[in-house]
Predict the structure.
Amino acid sequence: MPDDSLMTDFDFDRFLSIPRVSALRAFADGSRLVVSVAGPAPDGKGMRSSLWSVDPEGKRPARRLTRSAPGESIGRFTRDGSILFSSKRVDPEMGEEDHGEKERSGLWLLPAEGGEPELLVNPVGGVDDAVAARGADAVVFAPLNKQAIIRGGHRVRDEYELIASFVNAVDHDEVNVIPHPAGEGLLWVARATSHVPLREVPELLTLDRIVRTIKLAHGVAKAGGTRSPRIGVAALNPHAGEEGAVGDEEGRVIRPAIEASVSQGIDATGPHPPDHVFRLARAGRFDAVVAMYHDQAQIATKLLGFDRGVSVGIGYPFITVTPSHGTAFDIAGKGLADPQPMIQALALADQLVRSGFNPRLR
């Protein structure tokens, strides 16, 4: 029989009100500690957690880093001392009404220098925990099937929009790159339009869009190691429009865009006939080519370097590289796939990291 003299009244509510400290995490050099402190929510419904900074030497009082929010996880340090954590808090820039699934957990970054946390990722299904990819300078991914992405619940057109949705990148793009067929260096290819129906291309070709693409080609080629990139701009129509006889886009938007780019110090020429521009590039005349639509670029680059073609994401907070070919489900599991494009993607990612390539060019 228990000794009744040892029994006392137990106040469960008071017990729950006691803050609980857990998940001590230390920065790599031991100079900083972060802990998770959990307690009841102000409305009494569930628990809320917050992150606190603790002095390793105990000389300064603990400092609160985040406000209590639903689903706030353990903090984890990144290489630069920032703190990653997951939370169901609402992004202040989106507003409650635009947040979508209120109970979806997102990945947040608290900068090392302080300030407000920034939402990095808010994917379908949420983020269960924030895990820093220690030592990662780039992401290389295998080909993705666009229909599979869409059927998986993502409201995007391609893998680049998918990545953009994860990291809240608004101004993003992609470029293709192959070893330069003339010998040394790389040949960069940017597209004024990408994954859109061909019938929509003429309406999408505006002066601003083409100038932006020329600047993109100039920027990536320069960041990739070419000091003074030479850019060839393709026409849209056969024979570069024949002075308006077979289309007016060359005179109306493409040539003015080239002239505007040249006035800003960019070495751009054209519009070159689409069936001629890549022949000039192969001969070493250009370091980058600007195409007007997807297949105008892809047919040429795959003929010139299918086994070495790579796509590079632009506008993201990290370098993203992937082979330029598709998923090839028809040969999956048969041992027929050529690994060379993936090897090239890994090699290019390494080269871009070593050269200090900044994917946030704009």
Notes: The chain is about 25% helix and 25% strand. Residues 207-223 form the longest helix (17 residues). Residues 96-102, 128-134 have pLDDT under 50 and may be disordered.
